[in-house]
Amino acid sequence: MTTIEQTRKRAEADAKTYGYYLTPQPDLLQMFLEGLKVNEDRYGYPSCPCRLATGNFEIDRDIICPCDYRDPDVAEFGACYCRLYVNKAVFESQNLPEVPERRPLEKQERAYGTQVVAQQAPAQGEQEKPAAPAAAQPQKAEIKKKLWYCKQCGYVVFREDPPYVCPICKAKREMFAEIETKVEFKG
């Protein structure tokens, strides 16, 4: 069993490594740490406390905290989606920004087992209409993993998509290329 203190230390170390801070709001921070602990105890990995995990590691891989979307979110908005990790300006101002969901709809649909409807803001002068419920159609959780390598540092990963940011050298996703392999059997 993971303790809250172990969860806190891991998050603090990760934030410090990347020049981030943990959310400046103590009650919110405690809630996030408890969510990470519960998810790690439940699934064996600390999935994002702000997203619904499935318990299937391959489906949840992109939302294991720190999730694949953290670095691009902090770079663009000053905080990650759940606002556990923030940059210095947000930490000092204590104004947590709204961060839109970056996780692709197809990954959300696969995780939730249903169609996800993207929400759009109402046009000026229109009132917001209630969203129609998404059709509950079970989706097959078919994951086609590939080998990806970072052209900058050589980091290799075997997963569905390359990470948004290389965990080793911080190169952007565009620096990853697929490694294509061919296996021949001689008999």
Question: Could you explain how this protein is built, in words?
Answer:
There is one protein chain. With 187 residues, this protein is an alpha+beta fold. It folds into 2 domains: 1-113, Ferredoxin Thioredoxin Reductase; 144-187, Rubrerythrin, domain 2. It has helices spanning 4-17, 26-43, 57-60, 70-77, 88-93, 105-112, and strands at residues 21-22, 85-86, 146-150, 156-159, 176-179. The strands form 2 sheets. Strands 4-3-5 form a 3-stranded antiparallel beta sheet, with no helix packed on it. A two-stranded antiparallel sheet has the order 1-2. Helix 1 (4-17) crosses helix 2 (26-43). The longest helix is centred in the first third of the chain and has 18 residues, at 26-43. The model is unreliable at 128-139 (pLDDT under 50).
Briefly characterize the structure.
This protein has 187 residues and is α+β, with helices and mostly antiparallel strands.
